Amino acid sequence: MxxxxxxxxxxxxxxxxxxxxxxxxxxxxxxxxxxxxxTSSHVQAYTVIHVTNPANREKLAELAGGQAYVATASDFLxxxxxxxxxxxxxxxxxxNVVRGMTEQxxxxxxxxxxxxxxxxxxxxxxxLGICYIGGIRNNPQAVSDLLRxxxxxxxxxGMCLGYPAVDPDVKPRLPVEAILKEDYYTDDSELVAxxxxxxxxxxxxxxxxxxxxxxxxxxxxxxxxxxxxxxxxFLTKRGFEMK
Length: 243
Hints:
Largest sheet: 4 strands, antiparallel
CATH architecture of the largest domain: 3-Layer(aba) Sandwich
Strand content: 5-15%
Family: Belongs to the flavin oxidoreductase frp family.
Structural class: alpha+beta
Mean pLDDT: 96
InterPro entries: Flavin_OxRdtase_Frp, Nitroreductase, Nitroreductase-like
Low-confidence stretches: none
Order of helices and strands: HHEHHEHHEHEHHHHH
CATH topology of the largest domain: NADH Oxidase
Shape: globular
Protein name: Oxygen-insensitive NADPH nitroreductase
Strand order of the largest sheet: 1-2-4-3
GO molecular function, one term: FMN reductase (NADPH) activity
Keywords: Flavoprotein, FMN, NADP, Oxidoreductase
CATH class of the largest domain: Alpha Beta
């Protein structure tokens, strides 16, 4: 495989970082690399908040569920889906802008995720480690207030960046046969059962851990309750009415 594919396949979430700081010039280049990602109709419906205030970092760590590395990583970014900028730009041309459409929410969320993944890959190519922080959506209104986000902008996730202080194993993914299907959707329960065995072994043998679980059991907290049930009301109040 070429070096790019090998880099992509070597991704690990990093949660412990050295004290070494990322040069600001490099951080800016990472964002520029993020901007090079595909964007629906060139809308570029995103904004990135680089959180440098230590008190705000501590508060975000708390709001995200007590994830201390939000405060201790060299840098922390909050990736926001932003329909404010493009709709206002369109409005200034005289367009009769319709806001709050479900497709606008999808476009902004997908654009933001593509931007962030480009940033992640660029960071890893420079020897940095990253960790996505979905816990930003645990308290999205408090995060929005802290970051002074306007209407039609919402925080999708955060990202810790820094120089890794650990070298964890790569976590096994589902077999490609389970997710790559020819022409039609087919049952993959046998492949999932085999993958559960793989993950059981991974958790029991990985460095520094003896976790007794597998992929299917790990999903239980996500689906046996209403996960982040506040998100629909929150998004509606932000102007994403999902009409």
